[in-house]
Specification:
The complex is a heterodimer of chains A (about 400) and B (about 260).
Chain A (H helix, E strand, L loop, with lengths): L1 H13 L2 H35 L2 E6 L5 H8 L7 E6 L2 H9 L5 E4 L4 H6 L7 E4 L6 H24 L3 H4 L12 H9 L2 H28 L2 H4 L6 H33 L6 H10 L2 H28 L3 H16 L22 H12 L4 H26 L2 H4 L2
Parallel strand pairs in A: 1-2, 1-3
Antiparallel strand pairs in A: 3-4
Chain B lengths: L1 E11 L2 H7 L5 E12 L4 E5 L6 H8 L7 E6 L2 E2 L4 H5 L2 E5 L10 H11 L4 H14 L15 H13 L5 E5 L7 H16 L3 E6 L2 H7 L2 E6 L2 E7 H6 L6 H10 L6
Parallel strand pairs in B: 3-8, 3-9, 6-7, 7-8
Antiparallel strand pairs in B: 1-2, 1-4, 4-5, 9-10
The chains are: A mainly alpha (about 400), B alpha/beta (about 260).
């Protein structure tokens, strides 16, 4: 009988355009569309920034040495035009008016300092809020620095190794998988939790408050079916909807990576493919299922209690923020699953998923998170059952 | 058959309700000490003004809500102890009954037949019989949301009768319906009587009661003011017409116990 109720409620839900939008269409399209738009805008900004002729103003380059060095830098990193300025105040004004994009202040005694083998300090003036300017200044500075060092070493008759006795390299022993897990692992549980919650929302409202508003609940409660069976049948649809929305969002992200060249780095793509194994997907769903049941169990008592769509929405919408905000903890580095965080609902699932991506999740932690979330889900079902049994909540 | 003994129902009042009702009482009595019985093949009418306790009484009979005290027996089944068993015998239709707008009449009827655990063969026969009787075949596959009020009412009737209940409860069934649509309900009530079903219906319209009922109960402020046959009501009238008599009885002071 539970399955008969589930079938009917699922059919009813799938025919509701609003639910269908939040359950299937938006989760699938949100990532391909937003990421594509973001990438297009970002690329177009970068392209226009690199194609734009960068006007470089120079003050104090009496010997024209730096002007010549800058002109000698290949145009591959972007076209440039060098203009000499008499004083730094005029150069600063020109930069503020965006007539000049980069300004180089050369000390007037640069030649003497060079002869005396002293350090020459050059200053770049730029508007750092504009895209690509700092990067271009760093590239030019690196070239000027390399030239100066080579000249100084030649004058001293030294080889580079003679003044560089020690080179310290850092070797990252973490696997690529772990790095991806730590750096980007926060986004996956966030997507799952956010869409899992949103996916549950409309069916929960429609199947409980909606039935009261439409006057269909009275008829349903007169059938010879135990109320807990009716509740479970309906709850299964809410949970399915949440899981489907979360899965669709994941699918959308996968489509973005695979077909929209979101990750054009071949090595990164290989890492992503090595993460997305059937074991990983099954483990993630095992963590997510009790969480979505918990969400459904939070929303259903509210939906049963509320008398109108407006009332229930006004309660569940703030709840959305309370539940989804902790899922952002996955974005912060340094927070990991331990015997404190494992007991905090939502956060434990986020951190466990992050560890799962990095391949560092151990069985005791996995079982602990799963067990805690199952307990919370069972409590949420019990609360829903209690609310569903109250006459005052069911009949208007 | 329906048998009701000393039925009593009180509701706890919320703070908001206490404020609205301007009372400090923590509970409100909806129904007090009701006793009556409805016989098969007869139409029993529960007549009373708005807020008299008719809907609460019928909801208790339909096992939707539980009485605070008292006994309800449906076809010999104790409805309070075995509500699931009692529900199998009951068909319940209200004037405010809603239908699932995104489903078709056929899907709704199939759903309720399954919930009432109607056997496959009986289901097919009942569906064919009711669809012909109510002339529903033309709109079986259209979504409820696209049907007229009259068509929806036919679907509601079909849903109520799909499991062939022997006890049928109607709560203000013609409320909000036009005369032609209400006629379907009147026909249904009469047909239930012809099939020797036990019928109870509530109304606040005297003319409707006069048209249909065999036995009459007048209820006011949760208490029974009259309980006898319709012919006894007519015979003992002290005013010129049925409506005036109804008003007279309702306004009669309740004798002190």
């Amino acid at each position: 009988m539970i399955f008969r109720i589930f079938r009917k409620e699922l059919l009813d839900t799938l025919r509701d355009r609003r639910t269908l939008m939040t359950m299937l269409v938006i989760p699938i399209l949100v990532f391909p569309i937003t990421l594509n738009v973001f990438m297009e805008i970002s690329n177009s900004f970068q392209e226009s920034a690199s194609a734009k002729t960068m006007k470089i103003g120079i003050v104090g380059d009496i010997s024209q040495s730096y002007t010549q060095q800058l002109e000698a830098i290949p145009a591959a990193i972007g076209p440039k035009k060098i203009i000499a300025f008499k004083d730094s105040a005029a150069l600063r004004t020109a930069i503020e008016a965006d007539e000049i994009q980069l300004g180089l202040l050369v000390p007037s005694n640069a030649k003497e300092l060079s002869k005396q083998q002293q350090t020459i300090t050059l200053n770049w003036l730029l508007d750092a809020s504009e895209v690509g300017r700092s990067e271009r200044a760093e590239l030019y500075a690196a070239s000027l620095k390399a030239n100066a060092e080579a000249e100084r070493l030649q004058n001293l008759g030294l080889r580079p190794e003679q003044i560089r006795p020690l080179v310290v390299n850092t070797v990252n022993c973490a696997s690529d998988k772990k790095m991806v897990g730590q750096l980007a692992g926060g986004i996956l549980p966030y997507i799952f939790i956010a869409f899992g919650f949103i996916g549950c929302m409309y069916p929960a409202i429609d199947l409980f408050t909606g039935e009261k508003e439409r006057g269909t609940i009275e008829t349903l409660l007169t059938v010879p079916v135990l109320r807990w069976k009716i509740l479970i049948g309906k709850m299964m649809v809410v949970v399915c909807s949440g899981m489907l929305a979360a899965s669709c969002a994941l699918m959308g992200l996968f489509i973005s990576i695979e077909f929209l060249d979101l990750a054009d780095n071949k090595e990164l793509l290989e890492v992503i493919h090595s993460i997305l194994t059937p074991y990983f997907i099954l483990s993630m769903f095992a963590l997510l299922l009790p969480l979505v049941i918990f969400f459904a169990g939070l929303m259903i008592p509210i939906a049963i209690y509320a008398k109108s769509f407006k009332e229930v929405q006004s309660i569940i919408t703030p709840l959305n923020i309370i539940v989804v905000l902790p899922s952002m903890i996955g974005f912060f580095p340094g927070i990991s699953l331990d015997f404190t965080t494992v007991f905090i609902p939502v956060i434990n699932v986020v951190l466990a998923t992050k560890a799962l991506i990095a391949g560092t999740l151990t069985w005791p932690y996995f079982l602990c998170v799963f067990g805690i979330m199952c307990t919370l889900a069972a409590m949420a079902i019990a609360i829903s059952h209690k609310q569903f049994g109250k006459e005052r909540n069911l009949l208007l | 058959m329906i048998s009701v003994q000393n039925l009593h129902k009180t509701f706890a009042l919320t703070k908001q309700q206490r404020k609205e009702l301007n009372t400090e009482a923590k509970t409100a009595t909806a129904v007090s000490d009701l006793s009556f019985s409805c016989q098969p093949g007869r139409i029993y009418s529960l007549l009373g003004p708005n807020g008299a306790g008719k809907t609460t009484t019928l909801r208790m009979l339909a096992t939707l809500i539980t009485p605070t005290s008292g006994q309800i027996t449906i076809n010999g089944i104790n409805a309070l102890e075995h509500p699931q068993e009692a529900r199998k015998h009951i068909g319940f239709l209200t004037g405010s009954t809603g239908l699932y707008a995104r489903l078709t009449p056929l899907e709704i009827i199939d759903y309720f037949a399954d919930l009432y655990q109607v056997a496959a063969k009986d289901k097919a026969e009942r569906k064919a019989y009711l669809f012909d009787l109510l002339n529903m075949n033309d709109f079986l596959h259209k979504r409820i949301g696209k049907l007229s009020t009259g068509m929806k009412q036919k679907v509601s009737i079909c849903r109520t009768m799909i499991h062939d209940p022997s006890v049928v409860i109607f709560d203000e069934p013609t409320s909000g319906l036009d005369v032609i649509t209400a006629e379907n309900i009147i026909k249904l009530i009469r047909s239930c009587k012809d099939q020797s079903k036990t019928v109870i219906f509530s109304s606040h319209i005297m003319s409707e009661v006069d048209l249909l009922c065999d036995d009459l109960a007048i209820i006011h402020k949760g208490q029974l003011k009259f309980n006898d046959t319709m012919s006894a009501f007519r015979a003992n009238m002290m005013t010129n017409n049925l409506t005036e008599e109804f008003i007279r009885i309702v306004q009669m002071p309740t004798p002190l116990a």
